């Protein structure tokens, strides 16, 4: 089977759940919970991919300082180790409506073109240590490609699961 040479658009999922920059934190969390997705693409009204938002972005906005500063502090022998700061968040109820996706969007993301090959997609996934890539055509989001999508395609071709 020559899946490596297939174009991404043959394997990707087209049914993508997206959010807008104006989506509130409350709406975002409810959507992530409902769809069981920890990463969602952010698009404008024309469908142009602006970035991604994930649970790490949500956590990072509430941390008193960045993860890198935390790691440096932990290496200092004279400083007591801090408890799990992922759970030590400074929260108030108003944040659910005051914080929007635009506050936590990650604009430094990796995407792939729908005409690229599965081989290139896997190379990018390994290189950037990700298991899912937004798929674009002329800057517009047209789908998502995950490692699971690739495996499902292979399993279907080998008649391991139904087509």
From TrEMBL:
PANTHER family assigned to the protein according to its UniProt record, in alphabetical order: CBS DOMAIN-CONTAINING PROTEIN, CBS DOMAIN-CONTAINING PROTEIN CBSX3, MITOCHONDRIAL
Entry keywords, A to Z: CBS domain
Gene3D superfamilies, A to Z: CBS-domain (3.10.580.10)
Name this polypeptide is given: CBS domain-containing protein
InterPro entries in the record: CBS_dom, CBS_dom_sf, Diverse_CBS-Domain
Domain CBS: 12-69, 105-160
């Amino acid at each position: 089977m020559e899946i490596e040479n297939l174009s991404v658009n043959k394997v990707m999922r087209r049914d993508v759940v997206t959010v807008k920059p104006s989506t509130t934190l409350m709406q975002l969390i409810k959507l992530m919970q409902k769809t069981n997705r920890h990463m969602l693409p952010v698009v404008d009204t024309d469908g142009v991919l602006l970035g991604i938002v994930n649970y790490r972005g949500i956590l990072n906005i509430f941390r008193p300082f960045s993860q890198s500063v935390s790691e440096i502090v932990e290496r200092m022998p004279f400083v007591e180790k801090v408890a799990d700061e992922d759970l030590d968040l400074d929260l108030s109820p108003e944040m659910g409506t005051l914080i929007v996706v635009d506050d936590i969007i990650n604009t430094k993301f990796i995407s792939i073109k729908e005409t690229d090959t599965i081989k290139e997609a896997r190379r990018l996934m390994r290189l950037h240590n990700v298991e899912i890539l937004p798929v674009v055509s002329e800057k517009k989001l047209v789908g998502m490609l995950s490692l699971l999508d690739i495996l499902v395609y292979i399993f279907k071709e080998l008649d391991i699961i139904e087509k």
